[in-house]
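Objective 1b: paired records.
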Amino acid sequence: MARHCDLSARTLDSYLDGRTIPTEERLRELFEGLSEVCDDDGEWLTAARETFIGEVLFRARTARKEERDRVREMASALPAGQPAVEYAPFPDGIGAVPGVRLGQQFDNRMTLSRARVHRAMQSGITGTAELGAESIVVSGRHEDDEDHGDVIIYTGQGGRDPETGRQVRNQELTRGNAALATSATTGAPVRVVRAVDGGYRYDGLFRVEDVWSEESRSGYRVWRFRLVSLPPGGQVVAARDAGSVADSVVGEEAPRSRLETAIQRIVRSTAVANYVKRAHDYTCQVCGVRLESPTGAYAEAAHIVPLGAPHRGPDIVSNVLCLCANHHVLFDFGMLMINDDLTVVKRSDSSVVGRLREVAGHEVDRRRLREHRVMHGYGSDGVLR
């Protein structure tokens, strides 16, 4: 075809890819070449050619420089317009995609996939349980989704009727849901794409800060993920939510203490955390280990029901455990379950690892333990759903 148009193959590819706007002379050469291989009516082709050339030249003359730059930038995001390098800084596809800018728009799922922004053509989640999630599409189609801009409460995949879109059965922690749970564990960033005006927009990298299970509006259990936007440098920016310091340690549900900060976790009330750790002499309530550091004993205060949205757990003693760092992480990710009788069960093999220790002055709220179990896919009876 390039030979008939008296153009080099490279030039013709550039025209077809939209990377170069041809001159009037080149446009006429292109149509002359096409007429040699086209069997259509000559008069119709001539008329169509003149109309098309006039329209293209008008658009080329009136287009703003910014618009031409945007066209070139979009074309460079496609595989044919990129240099022969990896599409992402990691071989597993995690992280930003070179050549794709924040806010860049795509016409459809095909262009998203070709640009490697979201490779799945239908699924809302791309990734694997082993490596984590690469990207998600926020379409607003799920009745339980909440999009607050920099914070997204995202509902997992599975259990929906393909025709009505309604939830008709419980979701499982598999496939894309397991991938997002892995991302929460590893802290790896997830690309977020939003459906906008019949197309899609890349809205940057987010971190999965929380994972839990709850009953949907349709009455079925779904997996939910709290994602928080990352700035260009990749550091977590916590939601700004200032509050008053708790003025009571052991009493009723006191106001949660939060400081406006730029670290990942919400800053807990020092009074409540220190009270619980001192009550247990900085000894883990699960394994009985007391860690010693150069500055003294070390333990972590773990909230049974998290303080952050959407859980809104209270910052009071009965909602806090004294744990070592290992068991704090396992508890937060639902890999340890504590029954009402305080037996501690490992999620991986359902084995009982012991009984949660209680001391005078620190009684654990069984109601919060049940909420924690349900959050992570168990029934209130302790049976994994």
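Objective 1b, second protein:
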Amino acid sequence: MGMAQMKSGLSVLGPAYLVGAGHGATHWIAAIFYFLLPFLAKDLGISYAQAGALAAVFQMASFCANVVSGPVVDITGRRVLWQVISLVIGAAALFCVGISQYYWAAVLALIAIGASNNLWHPAAISYLSARFPERRGLALSIHALGANMGDAVAPLVMGPVVLLIGWRGVAQTSVLVPILVALGLFLFLRRTGRASNEAHQPLSIGAYFGGVAGMLRNRAVLALCLMSSFRNMAQAGLLVFLPLYLADEMGLSPAVMGVVLFAFQGAGILAAPLAGHWSDKAGRRPVVMAGITTTTLVLIGLTFVSNSVVYVAGVSVLGFALFAIRPVVHSWLMDLTPENMGGSATSLMFGLQALFAMIAPVLGGWLADRYGLPSAFYLLSVAMILANAVVILLPKAQREAGDGDQSSTKSASL
């Protein structure tokens, strides 16, 4: 009986796991870039500031993509189609990174990767939110689990491969993962979409802008987006400067770098489903506060650690706390917004996140060039302190009891 229930649960959540795999593929693309950044920088002969600028270009493209991604998803209602298109664009751009011989060519490829990354989120998060309204935290934690898998597995698998075929070969061959996942999404979710919500009624232009206006008047939504943006600023900085620190300051080989980065990202594999399930039961706010506070304390503490073993252990704890927050914040946002505006709400949050994330690589790179790489981590600590300050000011969500009532959460405000 237990086995039958387990199989039934897996079947019901099948679309969530497939979309989670797609999310993992988008993060696989980004993780491959970040992992290859030290090798690309050395090959092209660029500075830390220029390497940080590449990451800023990624975030800028993500920000600009929000102008159209949310509206396109909500107005057309084609949530699965846009997920597939996102993966195909990202895979093609990553291949171009592998064949680029000039800095400007890498910049253009990063623009496409950043845009495709933020085309994914409004489509996928709104799809899952509407498909699993009573298990939203769990469904979006599976989505986040895919991201952590992509982020963690990419450097672990490709670390040794770099030694065999070089960084360019890794960039070119790794596109097989997102292409295969895109094919799976197209073949499976396209058939089940009508039952799940892929074919929900498109919005008129007037109804869409009316919904946007109402969302922008919700101060709780805006505060939640601001808090998430500070958190994402720290995450974006870590993705850039942690590989550089491991390669240049600690002198680790590509294979060992892959293991350390797996420890950082792999902790989120465990954290995401635990945090998502907990938030469905206990409410979003206590989970977010616990994760933000832990992340802040560990990140500050790591700036005083010199022992490599302790540093790696601290990085694992940091990854656990940092990535546990992500699906809960997304679930909280969906609780506060109407179902047919899920794509635009996601675009609002990810647009602000991308805007803040542009600051960390550029300013952190400038600090690293002048004062050494550790100075970049002090900047990230400040970002987390600000995130912690904002989350304290957030109101208690009306859905704190975990009773599954979605109707009352849409109007929560400060």
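The mean pLDDT is 77. Residues 39 and 166 are 9 Å apart (CA to CA).
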